[in-house]
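Methods — Computational structure assignment.
A single polypeptide chain was analysed. Its primary sequence is given first, followed by the predicted tertiary structure written as structure tokens.
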Amino acid sequence: NIQGYGNYFITVGKAGAPSWALVFIDSNNNRPYPAKNANETNNGYDYIYRNQIAWYLEQSQQLEEKVGHQLGELAFFHNPLPEYNEVWGYNECFGQKNEFICCPKTNSGMFAAMVDRGAMRGVFVGHDHINDFDGKLFGIRLCYGRGSGYGAYSMYGYLKGARIIDLDANTSDFSSYIWLEDGTTHVQDRKHEPEHNF
């Protein structure tokens, strides 16, 4: 048994030959964190658990052995990883950050595991409805989607839309852009320069 619901891999390709693995992992819900007062709790966002990380590494390795080579991978979580703060603060990004990055307070090591494994090309998250930026950290693109539903909070003038992902079946390359409800598309617009240096 591993933590969460909906942890699974899907392979995609052409003519029955997989060329990509899509990795879906439950980023879980909330958890209590220590508060200043011992009689209180301070709820925050949960993290991806160690057994989920071990499961990811095992499944990725097994898939490589089955196919005969390492497939490019894309991961999909609901909540952003803590490294989304790092990529925005220290690297060039494209798109908008209109609210705080609501990630767990605990960094459980999922991103480091993906870097070490070497197959991951991009991570896609939601949760923060009015962020849609995209940046690269240690060779992995960290991307937000785009708020698409009408029942959730938004911001005046922030059009609904979706992040489109185009996979190349012959390589481990992909492209991605934002499509908006007015029919326009945005590819690497609104460049954001790093706020800090390493």
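Note: The longest helix spans residues 50-67.
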